[in-house]
Design goal:
The complex is a heterotrimer of chains A (about 325), B (about 350) and C (about 450).
Chain A lengths: L2 H27 L6 H9 L13 H10 L12 H12 L9 E5 L12 E3 L5 H7 L15 H5 L5 E4 L4 E4 L9 H5 L5 E5 L6 E4 L21 H5 L5 E4 L2 E4 L9 H5 L5 E4 L10 H19 L5 H15 L2 H6 L1
Antiparallel strand pairs in A: 1-5, 3-4, 6-9, 7-8
Helix pairs in contact in A: 2-3, 2-4
Chain B lengths: L9 E3 L11 H11 L1 H11 L1 H24 L11 H11 L7 H16 L12 H12 L1 H4 L2 E2 L14 E2 L2 H10 L4 H7 L3 H6 L11 H13 L6 H20 L7 H6 L3 H8 L10 H21 L6 H18 L13
Antiparallel strand pairs in B: 2-3
Helix pairs in contact in B: 1-4, 1-11, 2-3, 2-11, 3-4, 3-5, 4-5, 4-6, 5-6, 6-16, 8-9, 11-14, 12-14, 12-15, 15-16
Chain C lengths: L28 E3 L5 E5 L9 E2 L6 E2 L4 E4 L8 E2 L4 E10 L5 E9 L22 H10 L12 H5 L9 E5 L9 H8 L1 H15 L3 E7 L3 H11 L5 E6 L8 H9 L14 E5 H12 L6 E8 L6 E6 L4 H7 L7 E6 L6 E3 L12 E6 L16 H5 L6 H9 L3 H6 L10 H5 L6 H20 L1
The chains are: A alpha+beta (about 325), B mainly alpha (about 350), C alpha/beta (about 450).
Chain lengths: ~325, ~350, ~450
């Protein structure tokens, strides 16, 4: 064997030994002692790192669980009860069953219900638009339609409906991680209990102004009819906006019938056998008539409607008249 | 959502509500216009082939930009914003006039495909696309890339085969390597005035320093670009070669020779100042320029190529993110030691 | 004292040159009669909204206090008309949101007796330092340059700090606006007496009035008037936006640099707008609270651009009528100047203390051009008067790495808009930087608590 090969082998071997020794001592010296249970708990978590639990990621949540004496303050919304049971088993702790939650969009001001009064042209970002002004319609509370909630969702559980301009939650995918709730600058999205057999009743409006109907056909007017109708005291008013407390609501649906603008929504209920009250029929007929009129006359599209709006605005201030002279 | 209805409604947007009257496109076309004198000069020096090479490069760069954005990115191509034209012109300016057509097309493909679009298109490429194309050709096809048609050849308007010769830089480099005294070598190359106006062999765009400087003055006047990078590059080259020349004029050429031959002016004025691949702050630009100058001189004097501007710019392109990170503008009201 | 051929100064870093467009510069200030109804917003200043002290159906006189300041940073609000309070309701104001306002139906024009409505110039300052401070606070005076910071707070120098200079801001670097320009021409003597009062309140000996050289008549007028008052001088300044930014103005006039995160008082300077100075004069010498202000109504298509003296609370549409009506192709209505003003979405928005102008932009200029990719041209960096890197801040805010933006000093941004003005790719630089500033401010507040 030529000496070159021997020297090479010797040199590389000794280099390897020295490097291994250094690595060994460094690893020893900087070893961080961790509770092995953290790894176990982390294994049981869904590993989405969504932050829905309030911790910055699943590992942090696992650490918090291991360090906590009881798990009542900790809950992984994505894994739900099953995951929490597993975590509790690993740690030898008890955990209570929690009701599952779901995100609910509390605005129904679609293009059709809310005429546009201005045209936003800044960066397509809800927070920027909300910091600038109330929004493209007369309602300063409603959805801006720029989709920040959709962007915030890590589970593809939301999408923007092109025809209404409003976000939609896909119930099967929503994990109630709270990301969309914090993302929305208008606080439109709320986490509500999924309800028995997925049935829910909520007010789909957050306009606190008196006479919210001026700006949106389906806005809560603050008439308090629902409050009077509710036998369980579940409905309360903040300024001129109804709110249904899910804890108290027994899902009797009486409030839905008395709400004239139709702000109260029911979800996953079977259709009613009884005839709906007269007002509702009348309102619906009116709406249908209007829609038909629009279909009949292709020129009466949104453009004209909006043009009229600004004309009315101009006329009321006497401005366009002056100009004509 | 619908854009058509906007005309009847008041527009609401955050301030500012007015904008300067310019755009990417106007700026890019200004650069294109500023390159026209150099093109005319090279047509005078090399004949029709200069036009042929330049327009083939422009056309193929625009075609590849269009094809890649349409069929790979599936989006509207911005072929007419001027950036592909600039890449085409600059690539052509970095090629000899005798280059075969397939090399031009291949170089354009590499410049646009690998140099620009692979990184995500305009604004995202770390390296100057034209130089990527040129260096690709130089390494892959060294023979056609280093055959220089002679300047002012009698056949230049007839497209007949032109006689080729070495560039002044190559003459000096090879001569010095062979131990020929410098006084003999200078006799073989044109005088400084001829070199500066463009009577020399070389790439299409780099021969006439005068035309390049004229175009650059136009860009300065339009405030399209700033003086920082060119001054730093040229100053550094002049300084280093000047010191060496003063130490030993028998071994080193004068700084003037270094500034007006080869691609130094083209590189310093047009290639290094490319917005996308140069630093953002004046301080960073100076560092960037000095780096280019140093590397250029190193390659020219002690490297194996006679010319090194392209490599120098590409190497410094790679350092731009680092330069941007560490050379910040001077902040208003910055308190020393502390925040 | 004042030399007419003084050296023209400017701030050293960045800045842009938008077209002047001062269409109403030669139009004298005219008075707009009180409208039929006014709605006076309860938050017209930076800080906590004021608390109403009148109720539905209460009769009010011009100058009567209708809302009292609440908290440290706040301001009193006075009725600008006489008549009856019809309601206190939520009204759309220039913020684009519905906020509380006192709505008054106007009847006659009956003023509080204590107000001196004569035009005579009162030169002697009878009040002492503390009385001036109290009076300025009572009169509800806020910064009339647009920032609407309550003036009496700026006059209260914090313990341990010392002021030696008062700077009056007559720069008006925003294109189109001429309200301050006209005021300096027509009410120059009052402004200078106002400055004297402010100097007395601050205990400073020196005052400089900074004016851009595109207003030579104003410079000449004030320089002439200054001769009578030792310690007050006019400083001509180069036409360069944002010359009127507080920090830029101090740097230009005195070459002092307000430290990052600091206030002008940290370098011994207090800056007030010339309009504020005039309001102080009226409050101290004439006993008149802040109930009206000068508003420029202008625009490229406007029939007759005007400078109006307007009662606070007048709807914007009345002002537009006085300027010849709304042009047919109006696409955008801006409250303030084109660089920093706010776009309005209704003509019924009331004029507030901070409304310096109403600018009507024609449709073809009302829209932003399509945003393109950043080509790293570095123009935003070179025009930023604060030495920031807007392209970087925008990137960080878009990607929501606000901690990095904070380290890159996003809070130093004065929101002048030079970066977005100059960007050849029409990028929404300031939109995102403003968003980042808000987020970082909240982050800091949370960290403290």
């Amino acid at each position: 064997m030529s000496p070159i090969i021997i020297y090479t082998v010797i040199a590389l071997t000794s280099l390897g030994i020295v490097a291994a020794a250094i690595l060994f001592f460094v690893a020893k010296k900087f070893y961080v002692k961790e509770n092995p249970k953290i790894d176990e708990v982390e294994e049981a978590l869904p590993a989405t790192n969504c932050g829905g639990c309030g911790q910055p990621g699943c590992r942090a949540f696992a650490e918090a669980c291991v360090n906590a004496e009881d798990l009542s303050d900790l809950f992984c919304p994505v894994g739900g009860n099953e995951t929490m049971q597993n975590v509790a088993k690993i740690l030898g702790l008890e955990v209570e069953e929690r009701e599952p939650y779901i995100a609910v969009v509390r605005c129904n001001g679609s293009f059709e219900h809310r005429p546009r009064t201005s045209n936003y042209e800044g960066a397509p970002n809800c927070t920027i638009a909300a910091n600038l002004y109330g929004g493209e319609t007369g309602c300063t509370y409603g959805c801006l339609g720029l989709g920040e909630c959709v962007d915030a969702c890590d589970f593809d559980a939301m999408y923007m409906d092109e025809t209404t301009g409003l976000p939609v939650v896909i119930p099967d995918k929503c994990t109630a991680c709270n990301a969309c709730v914090t993302a929305c600058p208008k606080n439109i999205i709320e986490l509500r209990p999924k309800g028995k057999r997925d049935r829910r009743i909520f007010v789909s409006c957050i306009n606190e102004d008196r006479g919210g109907k001026r700006d949106c056909e389906v806005g809560c007017t603050g008439c308090t009819a629902c409050e009077k109708e509710c036998k369980f005291g579940a409905i309360s008013f903040i300024r001129h906006l109804a709110y249904i407390d899910p804890e108290k609501c027994r899902l009797c649906r009486k409030c839905v019938d008395v709400c004239k603008p139709g702000s109260i929504h029911e979800i996953n209920f079977p259709p009613k056998k009884k005839k709906p009250p007269k007002e509702k029929v009348a309102a619906k007929e009116k709406q249908i008539e209007k829609l038909e009129a629009e279909v009949e006359n292709p020129n009466v599209d949104k453009l004209v409607v909006e043009k009229k709006n600004i004309d009315v605005l101009k006329k009321s201030s006497g401005i366009s008249d002056d100009k004509d002279e | 959502m619908s854009v058509q209805t906007s005309s009847t409604l008041l527009t609401v947007s955050p301030s500012p509500h007015i904008h300067k009257e310019h755009s990417i496109t106007t700026m890019m076309y200004a650069v294109v216009y500023s390159l026209v004198p150099a093109l005319l000069m090279s047509v005078y020096v090399f004949g029709w082939s200069a036009i042929y090479v330049t327009f083939l490069a422009i056309a193929s760069c625009m075609f590849f930009e269009f094809a890649i954005s349409k069929y790979f990115f599936k989006q509207k191509a911005s072929v007419w914003d001027g950036s592909a034209i600039i890449t085409g012109v600059l690539l052509a300016f970095n090629l000899p006039a005798s280059i075969p057509w397939w090399a031009i097309v291949l170089g354009s493909l590499f410049a646009m495909g690998v140099g620009k679009m692979a990184f995500g298109g305009l604004g995202n490429n770390p390296f100057n696309p034209a130089l990527v194309g040129r260096v690709f050709l130089l390494i892959s096809f060294p023979v056609p890339m280093t055959q220089w048609p002679e300047a002012m050849n009698a056949n230049r308007w007839t497209m007949a085969d032109a006689t080729t010769g070495a560039t002044p830089l190559a003459v000096i480099k090879e001569g010095l390597d062979a131990g020929v005294p410098i006084s003999e070598l200078t006799a073989q190359i044109p005088g400084f005035f001829q070199l500066f106006t463009g009577m020399q062999g070389g790439c299409i765009g780099e021969v006439s320093g005068l035309a390049l400087v004229l175009g650059f003055l136009y860009l300065l006047y339009r405030k399209i670009t700033t003086w920082h990078i060119p001054v730093a590059v040229l100053g550094t080259i002049a300084l280093i070669t000047g010191v060496l020349w003063l130490i030993d004029p028998t071994q080193y050429m004068s700084p003037v020779f270094h500034l007006i031959t080869g691609g130094v002016l083209l590189g310093a004025l047009y290639m290094a100042t490319d917005y996308v691949t140069s630093p953002m702050t004046p301080k960073g630009m100076i560092i960037f320029g000095v780096g280019i100058g140093v590397i250029t001189v190193l390659i020219r004097l002690w490297g194996s190529y006679p010319e090194g501007v392209s490599f120098a710019i590409l190497i410094m392109n790679a350092a731009v993110p680092l330069i941007d990170r560490y050379f910040k503008p001077k902040r208003f009201g910055a308190v020393r030691n502390g925040k | 004292m004042s030399k007419s051929d003084q050296h023209i100064k400017t701030f050293p870093k960045g800045g842009v040159h938008p077209n002047d467009e001062k269409r109403s510069a030669n139009v004298p200030i005219s008075e707009l009669p009180p409208p039929k109804m006014v709605s006076i917003p309860l938050s017209q200043h930076i800080g906590a909204p004021s608390v109403p002290v009148v109720d539905k159906r209460d009769p009010v006189k011009v100058g009567q206090i209708i809302a009292k300041s609440k908290g440290l940073v706040s301001s009193n609000i006075h009725s600008s008309v006489s008549g009856t309070v019809t309601k206190i309701d939520y009204v759309l104001d220039s913020t684009g949101y519905k906020r509380q306002a006192v709505i008054i139906r106007v009847k006659d024009d009956e003023w509080e007796e204590s107000i001196d409505r004569s035009e005579t110039l009162v030169k002697d300052i009878a009040l002492e330092k503390d009385e001036i401070l109290k009076k300025v606070a009572e009169a509800g005076i806020v910064g009339l340059g647009g920032a609407t910071f309550p003036a009496h707070i700026k006059l209260n120098i914090p313990r341990g700090k010392k002021a030696d200079y008062l700077i009056l801001n007559g720069v008006e670097c925003e294109p189109y606006l001429t309200a301050d320009h006209r005021l300096m021409l027509e009410k120059g003597a009052e402004i200078i007496i106002g400055a004297k009062i402010l100097m007395k309140a601050l205990g400073v000996e020196k005052c400089v009035i900074g004016i851009e050289i595109n207003k030579p008549d104003a410079i000449a007028n004030l320089s002439e008037l200054c001769k009578e008052y030792p310690g007050i001088a006019v400083q001509p300044l180069k036409v360069q936006y944002p010359q009127g930014g507080e920090k830029q103005l101090i740097k230009a006039v005195l070459n002092r640099e307000v430290p990052s995160g600091g206030l002008p008082i940290d370098v011994g300077v207090v800056v007030h707008n010339v309009g504020t100075s005039f309001a102080v004069y009226e409050a101290i010498q004439k006993n008149k609270p802040l109930i009206e202000r000068i508003v420029t109504v202008t625009g490229k298509e406007v029939d007759k651009p005007v400078n109006l003296r307007v009662r606070i609370g007048t709807p914007v549409q009345d002002l537009i009528l006085a300027a010849g009506g709304l042009p047919d192709n109006t696409g955008k209505i801006i409250s303030g100047g084109p660089m920093m003003g706010k776009a309005l979405n209704s003509l019924e928005v009331p004029v507030a203390k901070g409304t310096s102008g109403i600018l009507l932009m024609p449709e073809e200029e009302a829209h932003r051009k399509a945003q393109q990719v950043c080509i790293r041209c570095g123009q935003c960096v070179s025009v930023c008067p604060m030495g920031l890197e807007p392209y970087l801040l925008m990137n960080e805010c878009e990607k929501e790495v606000f901690e990095r933006a904070e380290k890159d000093h996003i809070l130093d941004c004065i929101e002048c808009g030079s970066c977005a003005f100059v960007c050849p790719s029409n990028r929404a630089l300031l939109d995102y930087i403003r968003l980042g500033k808000r987020v970082v401010t909240t982050m800091r507040r949370e960290r403290v608590s």
